[in-house]
# Entry
Amino acid sequence: DSGVTQTPKHLITATGQRVTLRCSPRSGDLSVYWYQQSLDQGLQFLIQYYNGEERAKGNILERFSAQQFPDLHSELNLSSLELGDSALYFCASSVEGQGEYNEQFFGPGTRLTVL
Amino acid sequence: KNQVEQSPQSLIILEGKNCTLQCNYTVSPFSNLRWYKQDTGRGPVSLTIMTFSENTKSNGRYTATLDADTKQSSLHITASQLSDSASYICVVSARTGANNLFFGTGTRLTVIP
# Structure
């Protein structure tokens, strides 16, 4: 158990809908990262927050947005969902926001299915 | 362009046998390289981390090597077990940049009895 929690574990919804994924980082970690992993694909970095502020942006679609709250939990909002958005969404956390040896600890993921 | 390539894409071995997974990278300036194990449907878990000055590191039956000159790393698994069945992901960190992690697409290892 990495100490990172994600809810829900599974989510099934229809095209065009909007969903919110939630992540609670490990105690003491200030940074949260979101990743998308489509079937049999590698991890794709979406976005990083550090202590409430956006730190880095990856291949995140405009239909997707995220935020980190004062208690450091984070939410990833996915809107106007398409079939291709079906994937595992992982959250990771780390102590620092940046740094060469900044190890990320991954949560168990949320499996999103768009029908 | 910063890239991480892994081979083979998939591998099937018999329980008890050894295997070696490869990772080639072009990330610069290089900081460190990690190998992660990802069980199906679960989050990745770190196995080893190596910096520029380290050329080998072990974690139980897992031994990672790094050749910073040729920009290659390998993960050797000894006496494989059924529980080793997973995807193994190579992740390379650059020393600069806010988005400084580069992920390989992984090698899917299946260990059969």
Chain A is about 0% helix and 50% strand. The mean pLDDT of chain A is 92. The interface with chain B takes residues 2, 4, 41-45, 48, 55-58, 88, 90, 92, 98, 100-104, 106-109, 111 of chain A (CB under 8 Å).
